[in-house]
Design goal:
Blueprint (H helix, E strand, L loop, with lengths): L1 E12 L5 E12 L3 E5 L6 H9 L6 E6 L2 E2 L7 E4 L3 H4 L6 H11 L4 H14 L15 H14 L4 E5 L7 H17 L4 E5 L2 H7 L2 E5 L6 E6 L6
Parallel strand pairs: 3-8, 3-9, 6-7, 7-8
Antiparallel strand pairs: 1-2, 1-4, 4-5, 9-10
Helix pairs in contact: 3-4, 3-5, 4-5, 5-6
The structure holds adenosine-5'-diphosphate (2 copies).
One adenosine-5'-diphosphate binds next to strand 2 and helix 1.
């Protein structure tokens, strides 16, 4: 079934005479797929993700999540950003960071604890639950961000250049981590990157964007077999 359907999506910054960042974008992501959006720097990838997540209101077109129009910021959607250092709360422990969005969703204490134990185990941070973000390496902080997103059991996980701020070795570890956890949690993932190698390694499907205002110039199914 279709998880995400984007139709004729456009966003113009700064009113009618402003800058058209994306234009007439249409594509769909099936449930259980890991899709990558790849395109040059400045082509509108972040604008696209922010329009899908409801952080930006599109100026044309529409976004549907399992058949329902997206209005505001849907609670069955989670986002992982490139800048992990600004996305974690420094005054909360790793566990409390992971549980934070569960609190806002009204999930009770026992269930929060159960879910944070589960996802921290899966990202290899069970031993670090009581630590604070500043006590962790950049790669470990990004693992916390991924754990926090997965704990919400999102219908769709959006990732904006999630591995662009870590060193190459850590990036490989995190890419493999993503491939493992998305199987474990049967997640649907839409990840944007400027790195074509990364997109081919990770994705079941790669959408290639043109330079700004972005439109889809290729839609490539990828099958690398077992990884
Ligand atoms: P990418 O993520 O692919 O690097 P962005 O979505 O960040 O691209 O930006 C796409 C285009 O929109 C760029 O030309 C950028 O300069 C412009 N842009 C991004 N954010 C804003 C903004 N808040 N106001 C005006 N223009 C913006
Ligand atoms: P629990 O019931 O899971 O033990 P607590 O009520 O003890 O959680 O809160 C744990 C920490 O989470 C507190 O130290 C508090 O600083 C932080 N916290 C809780 N809610 C918020 C919030 N809305 N904004 C910022 N921090 C919060």
């Amino acid at each position: 079934s279709t998880m995400l359907e984007v139709s004729g999506l456009g966003h113009r910054y700064g009113g009618p005479t402003g800058h058209q960042a994306i234009n007439e974008l249409s594509f769909r992501v099936e449930a259980g797929e890991l899709a990558c959006i790849v395109g040059p720097s400045g082509c509108g990838k972040s604008t696209l993700l922010r329009s899908i997540s409801g952080l930006l209101t599109p100026t044309s077109g529409r976004v549907e999540l399992h058949g329902d129009p997206v209005e505001g910021v849907p609670s069955d959607l989670a986002v992982v950003f490139q800048d992990y250092s600004r996305s974690l709360f420094p005054w909360l422990s790793v566990r409390k960071n992971v549980e934070f969005p569960l609190r806002s969703r009204g999930i009770g204490r026992d269930e929060r604890r159960r879910r944070s134990d589960e996802v921290l185990e899966w990202v290899g941070l069970a031993e670090s639950a009581r630590k604070y973000p500043w006590q962790l390496s950049g790669g470990m902080q990004q693992r916390v961000s991924i754990a926090r997103a997965l704990a919400c059991r999102p219908a769709l996980l959006l990732m904006d250049e999630p591995f662009a701020s870590v060193d190459a070795q850590t990036r490989f570890e995190l890419e493999d981590l993503l491939l493992r956890v998305r199987k474990q949690f049967d997640s649907t993932v839409l990840l944007v990157t400027h790195d074509i190698d990364e997109s081919i390694y990770l994705a079941d499907r790669v959408f290639v964007l043109s330079k700004s205002p972005a439109s889809i110039v290729a839609d490539i199914p990828v099958d690398l077999g077992e990884r």
